[in-house]
C-alpha cells in the first residue's frame, strides 16, 4: 500500500482542538476514533459523508442511511448507495464537493484513505472519524463504535449482537473440522494473495480455511512455482474482478503452470461475494458462504423422523461483479483496497 495512506499517524496527527466556551461546549460532544484521535461532533449528527465502501455499507447495515449525504465512486452496495451524491475516489476525493454537502462528519478508514485528505478536511473545519479494524471481531466492534459516534448506540448493539451470534454458530458448526488449505487469488498476473495478518486471512480462518501463503506482507506477490509445490486444496477468489482477470478458472487452466495444481485438475474452485474484500458487516455473510462451499458436511441439519438429511439453506446474498482495470501490480493491490 502507498505510504501516504492514513497509517501510523494516530496520536501525532490528532487535531489540537481549542477549549470550547461553555455555551459552545453544550452544543458538541467528543468521541475518540479507532486511531486514538479526539473528534468533536455536534450533539446530533445529521449529515455524513463516507469515503470508503466498507463504511457506506456499515451505515446502511445500521439503518442510518438517511444520514448519508455523499459517498465515493466505489460505493456500490447496497444498490441505493449508488444513488447518493458522489465525491470522487477514496484516495483523491473532491474536497470542494465534500464541503458543498455540508457534512457534520466525514468517515474515513486508516487502511485506505490518505492522511493528507484528513488534514485538509480538518483545516476546512470538517470533522473526520477514522476506523481501523484488522480482524473479523474488530469489524464487528467497529460497527458498534461507529453507531455510537453517529448517536445510535442501540442500532450498533443490535447489529453487533446479531453478527456475534452468527459467528458463534458458525464456529460451533466447524468445531473439529480440519481447515482446508487454500490459495486466495487477489490477482493473477502477477499472482498476488493475502498474507497471514490481514482481515482477509482472518476471514478465511473463520470460514474453516487457511491460506497456504505464509507471509508477513499484507498482499504479497507469490511465485506460481511455490504454489505448485504447496498444492492448495482449493482456489478461492472474490467475484469483484472481471471474469478474464481472476475468477475465470477455465482461462487460468490454459496458462503455463496452473494445470499442475491438483485443485485445478479436480475443479476445486470457490467464488465468494466481494463482501469478503470489505471490512463491513457483510463480510460475515461472505464467511458463511465460503464455509458452506468448503465444508458442506458441516451444514447438514439433523433429519426429522422419517425424513432424509437436508443441507442448511445457502446464504441468500448473490455475488456481484465489478469490472476494474489496473496499470501495474501496485495499482492493482491499491484498487483491491478500494473495495474496502
Uncertain runs with pLDDT below 50, 5 residues or more?
A: 7-17, 241-245, 312-336
Order the strands across the largest sheet as they lie in space: 4-3-5-6
Radius of gyration: 21 Å
Q: What is the helical fraction, as a range of percent?
A: 25-40%
CATH architecture of the largest domain: 3-Layer(aba) Sandwich
Major sheet attributes: 4 strands, parallel
Please provide the count of β strands. 14
CATH topology of the largest domain: Rossmann fold
The helix/strand order is HEEEHEHEHEHHEEEHEHEHHHEHEEH
**CATH superfamily heading of the largest domain:** Nitrogenase molybdenum iron protein domain
Strand content: 15-25%
Helices and strands: which structural class?
A: alpha/beta
Number of discrete domains: 2
Amino acid at each position: 500500500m502507498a505510504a501516504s495512506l492514513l497509517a501510523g499517524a494516530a496520536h501525532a496527527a490528532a487535531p489540537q482542538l481549542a477549549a470550547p466556551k461553555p455555551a459552545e461546549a453544550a452544543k458538541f460532544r467528543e468521541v475518540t476514533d479507532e486511531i486514538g484521535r479526539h473528534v468533536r461532533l455536534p450533539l446530533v449528527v445529521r449529515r455524513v459523508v463516507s469515503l470508503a465502501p466498507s463504511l457506506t455499507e456499515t451505515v446502511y447495515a445500521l439503518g442510518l442511511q438517511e444520514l448519508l449525504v455523499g459517498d465515493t465512486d466505489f460505493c456500490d452496495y447496497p444498490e441505493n448507495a449508488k444513488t447518493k451524491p458522489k465525491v470522487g475516489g477514496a484516495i483523491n476525493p473532491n474536497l470542494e464537493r465534500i464541503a458543498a454537502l455540508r457534512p457534520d462528519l466525514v468517515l474515513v478508514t486508516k487502511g485506505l484513505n490518505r492522511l493528507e485528505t484528513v488534514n485538509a478536511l480538518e483545516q476546512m473545519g470538517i470533522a473526520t472519524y477514522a476506523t481501523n479494524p484488522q480482524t473479523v471481531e474488530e469489524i464487528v466492534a467497529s460497527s458498534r463504535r461507529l453507531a455510537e459516534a453517529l448517536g445510535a448506540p442501540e442500532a450498533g448493539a443490535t447489529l453487533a449482537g446479531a453478527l456475534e451470534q452468527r459467528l458463534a454458530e458458525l464456529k460451533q458448526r466447524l468445531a473439529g473440522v480440519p481447515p482446508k488449505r487454500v490459495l486466495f487469488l487477489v490477482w493473477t498476473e502477477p499472482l498476488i494473495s493475502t498474507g497471514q495478518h490481514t482481515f482477509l486471512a482472518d476471514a478465511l480462518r473463520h470460514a474453516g480455511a487457511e491460506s497456504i501463503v505464509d507471509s508477513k506482507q499484507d498482499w504479497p506477490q507469490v511465485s506460481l512455482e511455490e504454489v505448485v509445490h504447496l498444492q492448495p486444496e482449493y482456489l478461492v477468489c472474490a467475484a469483484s474482478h472481471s471474469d478474464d482477470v481472476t475468477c475465470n478458472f477455465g482461462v487460468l487452466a490454459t496458462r503455463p503452470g496452473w494445470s499442475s495444481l491438483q485443485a485445478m485438475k479436480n475443479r476445486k474452485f470457490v467464488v465468494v461475494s466481494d463482501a469478503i474484500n470489505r471490512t463491513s458487516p457483510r463480510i460475515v455473510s461472505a464467511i458463511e458462504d465460503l464455509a458452506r462451499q468448503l465444508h458442506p458436511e458441516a451444514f447438514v441439519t439433523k433429519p426429522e423422523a422419517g425424513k432424509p438429511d437436508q443441507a442448511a439453506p445457502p446464504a441468500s446474498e448473490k455475488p456481484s461483479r465489478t469490472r476494474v482495470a489496473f496499470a501495474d501490480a501496485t495499482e492493482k493491490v491499491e484498487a483491491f483496497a478500494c473495495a474496502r
